[in-house]
Amino acid sequence: MELLNKLQWRYATKAMDPTRPVAQDKVDRIIEAARLAPTSSGLQPYEILVVKNPALRAQIREVAWNQAQVTDASHLLVFAAWDDYTPERINHMFDLTNEVRGFRNEGWEAYRQQLLSTYPGRGAQVNFEHAARQAYIGFGAAVIAAAFEQVDATPMEGFDPAAVDAILNLREQHLRSVVMLPLGYRQADQDWLVNLPKVRRPLEQFVTEVN
């Protein structure tokens, strides 16, 4: 019930208070929630960039429809997906699993070979789109964690991904930007949305039970 109350409290904050920083421990827990989120085959094919540099954030704002949250928020998280599934990336995650668990499993190794024989050959664009969908799972976890921490957040797709990639040199890192999440605290007297009721379809229009 507490979590649902906080999800009712959250909204896509339109005006952030640039004078109120978010405590680092809260940011750490929000990022950790994204890190712990599930991903297909456990590959975790995305990274989170915490953009602190004011000049870079000003540049990003210019290619994000001048949305003030980009610069006014305490922290700006950019979720960037792998540009492709390569054998090196797949092997790294399988090797990491073996290292953490301390043993090798025959079925797990067979699954590794299955991915190695299929994923790289699908093409970079197909693989990026798959990786981007995984990034959204972590992004959703971060949004929920922010609400739990009572930190305001603004899910943001309204930006030019190619331009953000260039500003943050993501292509050189074999990453592509997917979605951004400014974190901060609402400036209620400047935010037209703050007191409006949350609008969601009623449950009976949203859920269908299939028996």
TrEMBL record:
Family: Belongs to the nitroreductase family.
Record domain Nitroreductase: where: 8-185
Name by which UniProt lists this protein: NAD(P)H-dependent oxidoreductase
Keywords carried by this UniProt record: Flavoprotein, FMN, NADP, Oxidoreductase
Cofactor field: FMN
Pfam families reported for this sequence: Nitroreductase (PF00881)
Source species of the chain: Telluria antibiotica
Source domain of life: Bacteria
Residues spanning the signal sequence: none
